[in-house]
Amino acid sequence: MEHYIITVARGFGSGGKQIASQLAAELNIECYENRILTLASEYSGYEEKKFVAVDERLRGSSLRMIPKTLLPKPITNNFINDDQLFACQAEIIRNLADTESCVIVGKCADYVLKNYDNVISVYIEAPRHYCVARVMERMGVSEKEANAIITSTDKYRADYYKYYTHGNYWTNPVNYDITLNSEKAGEENCVKIIRQYLKLKFGI
Question: Model's pTM, two decimal places?
Answer without folding.
Answer: 0.82
